[in-house]
Amino acid sequence: MAAAPGWWRLELASPPELEESLLWKLGALGIPRVAVQHPPGTPAERQLIAWLPASDWPEHERWQLEQALAPLAEPFGVALPPLQWSQQAEEDWSLSWKQHWQADPVGQRLLILPAWLSCPPEHAGRQVIVMDPGSAFGTGSHPTTRLCLEALESLDLAGVRLADLGCGSGVLGLAALRLGAVAVAAADTDVLAVRATADNAALNGLKHQLRVALGSADTLAGLLDGQPADLLLCNILAPVIQALCPAFHTLLAPHGVGLLSGLLVDQAPALQQALLEEGWRAELTAQQSQWGLLTIRRVA
């Protein structure tokens, strides 16, 4: 009798409005081995793939996973795409997972590079951010992350102190350091994200410039030692940004700039109003697909 396969391979379509929520939920459920792929030339046709140990995910657990994911689609008025399961042998899963990740140029100056790959010669002039994909959300592929990375490129970051609220994998803070920032304080409420940010900072030789801790806005304010940052990054879902914005004055200096993403374009007006009530002028400065980026400054 053949040995039971070591892994379940889960595939489902990844609509833009659901992708961030799906990645977050899978991570929260202890499923870190996740990739997102799309056919060349058609970035909108995205497919989410996850690998789950067969011994931990019998039929009933797989059914419960589908029940846990389904409510994520409700706020967007769509249905959860069908989940497709297949079995994969132990010796195949690692190679299968890694082959979905390639060097990923972002904007004009950045390159996201999986830790097991060498920098392609054609990208030798870019600022390289080495990442361990799958350790936490935020490897640069999602539109909200790319919006933030491209916005960072447009700023003069020389000498800037940065605060990253909801740091995920740490990719935004690491990119800022590559682009000239001198220090990053980062926080996340997910212990896996905190660990991933610290690990990725070490992979890039930047652990002394990036401090990360488990917690939310109050924890981040503590890391800043009472000196609000020059730049605030917050790539979180819109309702969470709205809940956190009363604390932004403790994180961002009066002259500072904030980049907020994780929001759908049609969520921007309500969020802009909430920010205005807290003393922030917010402008929708970029968008990709249905996702938007708000740039905030203190009201004069």
Verbal overview:
The protein is α/β, with parallel strands linked by helices. It has a domain of 163 residues: Vaccinia Virus protein VP39 (Rossmann fold), CATH 3.40.50.150. Helix content is 30%, strand content 30%. It contains 9 helices and 14 strands. The strands form 3 sheets. A 7-stranded mixed sheet has the order 10-9-8-11-12-14-13, sandwiched between helices. The chain has a 4-stranded antiparallel sheet with strand order 2-3-1-4. Strand 5 and strand 6 form a beta hairpin. The longest helix has 13 residues. The termini are far apart. 38% of the residues are buried. The model has no long low-confidence stretch (mean pLDDT 88).
Shape: globular
Terminal residue distance: 74 Å
CATH topology of the domain at 136-298: Rossmann fold
Q: Proportion of β residues?
A: 25-35%
Task: Give the number of DSSP strands.
Answer: 14
Average pLDDT reading = 88
